Amino acid sequence: MRPSGRTTGQIRPVTITRQFTAHAEGSVLIEFGETKVICTASVEEGVPRFLKGEGKGWITAEYGMLPRSTHTRMRREASAGKQSGRTQEISRLIARALRAAVDLKALGENTITIDCDVIQADGGTRTASITGACVALVDALNYMRAKDIIQTNPLKHMIAAISVGIYKGEPVADLDYPEDSAAETDMNVVMTDTGKLIEVQGTAEEEPFSFDEMQQMMTMAKHAINELFDAQKAALN
Amino acid sequence: MRPSGRTTGQIRPVTITRQFTAHAEGSVLIEFGETKVICTASVEEGVPRFLKGEGKGWITAEYGMLPRSTHTRMRREASAGKQSGRTQEISRLIARALRAAVDLKALGENTITIDCDVIQADGGTRTASITGACVALVDALNYMRAKDIIQTNPLKHMIAAISVGIYKGEPVADLDYPEDSAAETDMNVVMTDTGKLIEVQGTAEEEPFSFDEMQQMMTMAKHAINELFDAQKAALN
Amino acid sequence: MRPSGRTTGQIRPVTITRQFTAHAEGSVLIEFGETKVICTASVEEGVPRFLKGEGKGWITAEYGMLPRSTHTRMRREASAGKQSGRTQEISRLIARALRAAVDLKALGENTITIDCDVIQADGGTRTASITGACVALVDALNYMRAKDIIQTNPLKHMIAAISVGIYKGEPVADLDYPEDSAAETDMNVVMTDTGKLIEVQGTAEEEPFSFDEMQQMMTMAKHAINELFDAQKAALN
Amino acid sequence: MRPSGRTTGQIRPVTITRQFTAHAEGSVLIEFGETKVICTASVEEGVPRFLKGEGKGWITAEYGMLPRSTHTRMRREASAGKQSGRTQEISRLIARALRAAVDLKALGENTITIDCDVIQADGGTRTASITGACVALVDALNYMRAKDIIQTNPLKHMIAAISVGIYKGEPVADLDYPEDSAAETDMNVVMTDTGKLIEVQGTAEEEPFSFDEMQQMMTMAKHAINELFDAQKAALN
Amino acid sequence: MRPSGRTTGQIRPVTITRQFTAHAEGSVLIEFGETKVICTASVEEGVPRFLKGEGKGWITAEYGMLPRSTHTRMRREASAGKQSGRTQEISRLIARALRAAVDLKALGENTITIDCDVIQADGGTRTASITGACVALVDALNYMRAKDIIQTNPLKHMIAAISVGIYKGEPVADLDYPEDSAAETDMNVVMTDTGKLIEVQGTAEEEPFSFDEMQQMMTMAKHAINELFDAQKAALN
Amino acid sequence: MRPSGRTTGQIRPVTITRQFTAHAEGSVLIEFGETKVICTASVEEGVPRFLKGEGKGWITAEYGMLPRSTHTRMRREASAGKQSGRTQEISRLIARALRAAVDLKALGENTITIDCDVIQADGGTRTASITGACVALVDALNYMRAKDIIQTNPLKHMIAAISVGIYKGEPVADLDYPEDSAAETDMNVVMTDTGKLIEVQGTAEEEPFSFDEMQQMMTMAKHAINELFDAQKAALN
């Protein structure tokens, strides 16, 4: 039933390449099938003004797409002079999710900036971004400990994210672009590896969905995300 | 347990005033307790460029806060020269929710612009906005039928929205500002009066939440939103 | 002769509602007939950089219109990314007028920000803004004295403003929208309750006006503004 | 009494140089003493969208200051990315004043853009701009007639402008910078050579002014502007 | 003498990977040692307004750097809301160089947009961009011929670019970051494979350079660029 | 052969007027034939943040064109809200060139801002800007020494600039607008009066140029610039 021939709950092959670029404290290329995102984590001393003197750190994030990561070229946001609402929304989501993974007190007055740049898009860029960024974050935290910038590990748990949706009336996991653009409902779920929820965003694109369908999607998301945790762990070993 | 003395599932008094201002085709002042939002619906001929010639209409929305709707004055976005990520995110949410309430084909090549302007904020401004905007939308659609701009009623169902959350470990409905700023989890739910879901956005602010807690919040949201449908219907009669 | 049936010097009914919203130190809804403006005064410690260390305070103002305060929807300035020249001009006028009402030295190094947001427009929004803002300012100054932020009353005199113009060849006071859009000349006058002038702005829209007509408009403005002072005083008692 | 040694009603020497630059249809360097402004009038076919098909023309204006036209360098507005409120206010004033001098119907569907660029500032830049721009406009209209773009002369009357004010308690005309920055009241007056008023803008900078003082300033302005009309006529012959 | 141990005229290893991403008509990853740039060529029907109806095509370019392509994180230009002068200068250079390689008439009324996104920077990003973009352009032109969008090959000649400079008093080719940041003079040269010059940009960073030194750098550039032509040809076969 | 009747190497008459405006520390009107540029040098205490505490000064530059300095009116950049890529590129070129003329250490922690505003354009505005700015810079440095802001003369050598190009197959110097818009190649050369090069920027507009042609243009540029040094010296005596 799925254009890709996958079973309803089956996610795409996931590849996580660490140290993808040379300069960032954490740098990961994550691939969910044909979706490819470079996730970097940059460590900087100091915190934004609103946090100064509170003895804790901060994590922020920015998301972007290369203009030709998509089927037809999108206008470059730097040249348009502003980021779209969608870009800002995803940036805020990534940052919020990663902050929930870390004990900001243990981070000291340092800031980690996550950059997620999509070089090829085929659906699920925001969930790939979160999943890849968490690995880049771990590398950045390890760098900070190695450099004695922090003394303890601020990571509370790993996080990962998947999209689920209702496609042709059936719940499916990890929608690719052909599914995403035709889905009745689209839901993004961010979870911890302790089995708890960080973020749930479900949207009826065409048809409202029932409480029952939501339940099914949540269960499917849980299974899918557990596979992502396996991929993260494999990459980190 | 709640600062306001309300029971966990109890929402604030809801007041809906139609024809609040004179010029808009639909104009509603909605109050969720101390939260007050002016929602207007403006009818314009034509559709955005990407829809031209497709024989269907469009609904868009913009959200704003008066600078001193809040405890301390916020910078005016018009003067700052850009809307915050939060503002854009809420504008997109309102528009998406209302589009899901309407058969865009039946709207013809017309655009309805929803403006939700918060004049006093005490938590729950986005859910009050959606709930009030739906009433303003009904008035605008009635105007269009009275003026023979459209022949059938494009409204598929009413929609309304409520926030629920985990506050001091307990699920509560319709959080006011003191609760909202201290909640562990915050979830906004948009529903149809046919009992289906349009949008679910749950965010762990402090602590991840369990699948179980999510279930409880969803059930509580369902009950609360049904009260909002009663208030909408009373206002429209 | 006037569309509203008023006599040439007759102003519209004026209503001033104090404490219109909850958070601002001064909050007034002023109505000049169908023109409705929310005026808030916000007190903040400190002054803009150019005044630092000079031992005096500052008053600034921002004017805005809700997008559908007008007959047809205007573009939201926050979304357009800039304020129009008209908006900035009115903001500057309001601020200048209110600064002229106050002894800035007696204000200490504090800033009062006036926000005038038009929720319904029917001509005369800038003069209603100034007249309402002066009442909000008084409330804010009273708040400051009650909180011991200042020791003396910085208010030198009340101010109020009216528009006058030449409409169908005759001087008229307090033009509403149908008059304003057809007037040959439009003049805004800001006065003190000690009978002096703060600001006079007269513009020939269609036909140049004579020194004589200017004289007549000034006299008419004086009488009209005195009625506004009565309305302000009634509201403050 | 005046820093420059002038008598109260005496204006500075006025010099008007036509054809100051080569490309514009009208190009004037106007000097009010040490204040020097380049005023150009550019003729373009067509009108702004809101006037299309109405069979009449348009006049618009833009005002600017070279960064080092002032005592200390101002930030370049092109580099700051926005024009100040003051700049926009003056641009609007110049355009309004010149439109009042012309029969827009007789202009046909053409636009004249006035650019007033201050190369040296010593007070009175906006009144010098209007006075010089009117001469540039005449040259541009003559060009249009010579090229058969228009058949009749759209000019209804010449216009000119002067600043008057209360300085050390006395009304004075044509304030230079030392006076302008210390004046109690500042008033800009735009007049036609038929003795009528186009624009009056009086502002109390320090002290409110009386109706009487306003009268005196108006009379002084009238005399001063008549001298400007002489200078304009001399330049045009 | 060179930090990398290279001889003065020796360039870094060059790798050119075609079809690096899936969607663009031409997509190349080019590596000059540790400098890595994704160059895509996107074909779109139509031309910018200023070329409409002239029967010829257009090539434009945009350059960008991922925020963490550099040693310390740069601010994301999309978030800053504007592109730096450097970014715009390089974008203009790339576009100009590629336009010089193509017969725009033979391109028909089509536009090719080149995007050069630096994912890792180690000096020479603009010359790597031009060299890689030319290969992406060839792929895009081949696509256009295969799709019968154009009938003849618009390519007049290949182009490639190299940086040369004076480092510690000696001319060197293909400066990496440590050299680039310490060089006395920096010169970028764009050449055709027919041995002619498209662009020469030489800048004294510290010390003016002699006519003689310029001569030496030009000769060195010519040799280096010939190696780049070999790399391009190898990649295209 | 040249539209102006000049011989191939002949430059236009050069006029340099010092103290052209009153306020700037250095103010020069430079004319290359019909090209006229006001160049001012403004001295300010302090340096940009990235230089603080390094004990040296800074020179920056901004270039602009009056909207009607050109044949047809250009949009005012201040009103467009951004500077074009061309404007920024020229600003950066001017600043870089002048910094190369000065020992920044000897300047102390002071900033000199160069403004080059074109009031009439006929080709070669950037080279006229650099040549005139150098004279304004000398005046500003003399001012600083007279005021004891600096103790030694930071000027290392004079600089001047000329454009050369290939026009109808022949090398020519100091292209005016008719030549510039038709030239096959355009090259700007900045030199010191000690015979060395600061900047060389050659661009093939239509046809690639040979190494030989480049050689010829460089020789022609050298002769032309020497005439500019004579004009500068005459103006400074």
UniProtKB/TrEMBL annotation, chains A, B, C, D, E, F:
It catalyses: tRNA(n+1) + phosphate = tRNA(n) + a ribonucleoside 5'-diphosphate. Phosphate binds at residues 86, 124-126. Homohexameric ring arranged as a trimer of dimers. GO terms for molecular function: 3'-5'-RNA exonuclease activity; tRNA binding; tRNA nucleotidyltransferase activity. Keywords: Nucleotidyltransferase, RNA-binding, rRNA processing, Transferase, tRNA processing, tRNA-binding. GO terms for biological process: rRNA 3'-end processing; rRNA catabolic process; tRNA processing. Belongs to the RNase PH family. Phosphorolytic 3'-5' exoribonuclease that plays an important role in tRNA 3'-end maturation. Removes nucleotide residues following the 3'-CCA terminus of tRNAs; can also add nucleotides to the ends of RNA molecules by using nucleoside diphosphates as substrates, but this may not be physiologically important. Probably plays a role in initiation of 16S rRNA degradation (leading to ribosome degradation) during starvation. Its EC number is 2.7.7.56. Pfam families: RNase_PH, RNase_PH_C. This is Ribonuclease PH. It comes from Thalassotalea marina. HAMAP family: RNase_PH. Residues 10-140, 157-222 form the Exoribonuclease phosphorolytic domain. The gene is rph.
